[in-house]
Amino acid sequence: MTAPLASIEIDEYLPHPPAAVWRALTDPDLIADWLMDNNFEPVVGHDYIMRGTPVPAVGFSGLVASRVLDVRDGHLLRISWRDAEAGNDLQSTVTWTLAPEGTGTRLDLVHEGFDPAEPSHAVAHRIMAGGWQGHLLTRLKETLGRIAA
Questions:
Q1: Alpha carbon separation from 16 to 3, 12, 88, 95, 116 (Å, rounded)
Q2: Which residues contact residue 52 at a Cβ distance below 8 angstroms, ignoring those fewer than 6 apart?
Q3: Prediction pTM value
Q4: Phi, psi (rounded to 5 degrees) for 80
Q5: d(Cα 34, Cα 142) in Å, to the nearest integer?
Q6: For the chain (length 149 residues), average pLDDT per consecutive 10?
Q7: Can you tell me the distance from the alpha carbon of 46 to that of 99, in angstroms, rounded to the nearest whole number?
Q8: What residues have CB less than 8 Å from 131, skipping those under 6 apart?
Q9: Which of 27, 47, 45 is nearest to 37 (CA)?
Q10: How far apart are CA 81 and CA 113, in angstroms?
Q11: How far apart are CA 140 and CA 109, in angstroms?
Q12: How much is the pLDDT for 93?
């Protein structure tokens, strides 16, 4: 029997209106500011590449090949997320769901598809969990602060 796939789940309150958060998740220049350089378009079926820093510990090439799987304007963005280099078997999905809360936004982020029985997946899960919590959401908040100013 195969172990169930692991996910990273983050529930975060952002003191910024949903429109600003949506813009930071869908504008290629803003995505490059807090996540990675990219050629993103918020269109279901759009394939795009994000360029980041290689992570040798998990065999990450630094290129993420992604596809827009679902878009519900202002509310939900779901993408596939995999290493663009051939031979890397880590295929996951990232889903951002936005909901207004007071004057801000409730952001639910789910990054799923990690196989805990596969050593490289387990390491990637640990690195990505720390990365989303400690680095990327911090940069997203900084970007939101700049665009709100």
A1: 38, 12, 37, 19, 35
A2: 35, 36, 37, 62, 63, 64
A3: 0.91
A4: -85, 155
A5: 8
A6: 81 96 97 95 96 81 93 97 76 96 97 89 87 93 89
A7: 24
A8: none
A9: 27
A10: 9
A11: 13
A12: 95
Can you tell me the distance from the alpha carbon of 58 to that of 110, in angstroms, rounded to the nearest whole number? 20
Looking at residue 46, its pLDDT comes to 97
Output the pLDDT for position 87.
Answer: 62
Give the closest residue to 109 by CA, choosing from 131, 88, 89. Answer: 131
CA 116 – CA 118 distance, rounded (Å): 5
- 60 with 124: CB under 8 angstroms? yes
Q: Residue 84's closest CA among 47, 112, 33?
A: 47
Place of tokens 């510990």: 57
pLDDT at 88: 62
Interstrand relation of 37-38 and 6-14 (parallel, antiparallel or unpaired): unpaired
Contact 20, 81 (CB under 8 A): no
Length of the chain equals 149
Using only C-alpha atoms, the chain has a radius of gyration, in whole angstroms, of: 15
Residue 139, CA distances (Å) to 27, 86, 144 in order: 15, 29, 9
